[in-house]
Amino acid sequence: MSASLLIVAVVAIAVSALCRRYGLSSPLVLVTVGLAMGWIPGLPTPELEPELVLYLILPPLLYSAAQESSYQAIRDRWRGIATLAVALPLVTTAVVGYVAYLTVPGLTLPAALVLGAVVAPPDAVSAQAIGRRLGLPRPVMTLLGGESLLNDATSLTAYRIALGAAVGVTSSLGEGLLTFAVAALGGLVIGLVVGAIVSRVRVWLTDPPMETAIGMLVPFVTYFVAEMLDASGVIAVVTAGLFLGHRSVRLGYATRLQDEAVRKSIDVLLEAFVFLLIGVQMPFIISGVESESWGHVAIDAAAVLAATILVRIVWMYPVAYLPRMFLPRVRRTEPAPSAAAVFVVSWAGMRGVVSLAAAFAIPLTTDSGDPFPARAEILFLTFVVVIGTLLIQGTTLPWVIRTLGVTGDDEVQDRLAYAAAQDRASREAERRLDEMAEAWADDDPMRSRVALMRKWIASQRNVAWEELGRGPDAIGESPTARAARIRTELLQVQRAVFIEERDAGRIDDEVLRTALRRLDFAEGQGDREA
């Protein structure tokens, strides 16, 4: 197993690197490569372990997404996010479950609802990546991001309730709703407690490497503790991530830079690994239904896949427009969404590895010792939904976005907001510098340094205003950008000299590392100014 996981990881990173280099959609290419790998004779390919996904892959991805999300944006759009992340997974569970119950032989209603819960949560990783690349409006991206943070919690809790009914553990709907409420509230409390404790500890430490190390443990510990206490691990991780992301401004700059670099590297590795792992599961899945009639299997798969895609589309338009018709407050506070934007959100419903992990976690038998009803068929149908939505919706989503013209002017508005805020920050910095400069009126060396600081503050303000409303492609290289480029070239010259000095034996590696660290920070500052 360890060798096969290593092979998957290496191939995943290699394929993902090529996709990023040539601007291809990584999730779709990775799934396709995984499908091909699964049929290579003699190649060791791992069978998906639910614990691997739910305890080692899902928590850091959710935590990273939560830290990069805006608490204020989610709060402002809580109604739309709730309809997508809470109500829609429950509706999907019921609709898809009932369709499967009617079409799949031997599938009991509780087992069919298990299938519905398994395929209910969309995986918004690929949708957000496509939307970010094509410039979807920020409200749409906020909806997709907020949905991806919370829909797993809703679906997995519904899955737990339906599974309990299917194996003979739970009984009534009231008991199921109580379980749902306790899991959600427990996850919220645990996430807030963990976030508050970790935030205080990290601020107290003032040790960037240790602060980042603690941050890396947060999603795993939070998820494990919540699940051990029968709470929602997903909600706990998301809550802790949102809390710590909101409080990250209290950390030192070195910790924030380290956190971002480590988090993005882990995201790239896990996302690539996950999508390739989906593809290589095909032989395991198909082996379970080889004895079935492929005609019936194809009809069942088409019905479940169509229900999964259509229920999201049918759901989106009423929840987008009916509240505006009957609730004056919604009309006053929320801008009307365009029909095109609503369709883009409804079409961004690709499923992912969480669905497969939940399907693989279905037990082989019920509490009575009987085989779990149609378990092999549930696994196969889940696989069809995951691959089908990735290939159908994932490949066409960029075309849909371009055709419908769903783009925003967030970049222009961001530049305007940044320029105004930078102007205020620069003026406040100049005021404070004037106060400090009075004490150095008779100090010639400090007067020259104050003059340099004034130029630096002015350059920050100039960068913000020079390209306001227009990008570098429209106006060419600005004076500040040109100065930053020259500065970078001069830093590279210095870096080369330090390396030559080390190679000649005139300085050792410790001195070289110190010099490179200072030059790297200077170059990074130049990049931000440009």
Q: Mind telling me the C-alpha Rg?
A: 27 Å
Shape: globular
Averaged pLDDT: 83
The span between the termini is 47 Å
User: What count of domains describes the coordinates?
Assistant: 2
Transmembrane segments: 81-101, 177-201, 221-245, 266-286, 298-318, 339-362, 374-392
Domain Cation/H+ exchanger transmembrane: 10-401
InterPro entries: Cation/H_exchanger_CPA1 (IPR018422), Cation/H_exchanger_CPA1_bac (IPR004705), Cation/H_exchanger_TM (IPR006153)
Membrane topology: Multi-pass membrane protein
Q: Can you describe this structure?
A:
With 530 residues, the chain is mainly alpha-helical. The chain has two domains: 2-408, Na+/H+ antiporter like fold, CATH 1.20.1530; 412-529, no CATH class. 80% of the residues lie in helices and 0% in strands. The protein contains 23 helices and no strands. It has helices spanning 2-22, 26-38, 50-68, 71-76, 78-103, 109-118, 124-134, 138-167, 173-205, 208-228, 233-247, 253-279, 282-287, 294-326, 328-333, 339-347, 353-360, 375-404, 410-437, 444-466, 472-475, 479-503, 509-529. The radius of gyration is 27 Å and the shape is globular. The mean pLDDT is 83.
Write the layout of secondary structure elements.
Layout: H1 2-22, H2 26-38, H3 50-68, H4 71-76, H5 78-103, H6 109-118, H7 124-134, H8 138-167, H9 173-205, H10 208-228, H11 233-247, H12 253-279, H13 282-287, H14 294-326, H15 328-333, H16 339-347, H17 353-360, H18 375-404, H19 410-437, H20 444-466, H21 472-475, H22 479-503, H23 509-529
Helix pairs in contact: 1-2, 1-12, 2-12, 3-10, 3-11, 3-12, 3-17, 5-6, 5-8, 5-14, 6-8, 6-18, 7-8, 7-18, 8-9, 8-11, 9-10, 9-11, 10-11, 10-12, 14-16, 14-18, 16-18, 17-18, 19-20, 22-23
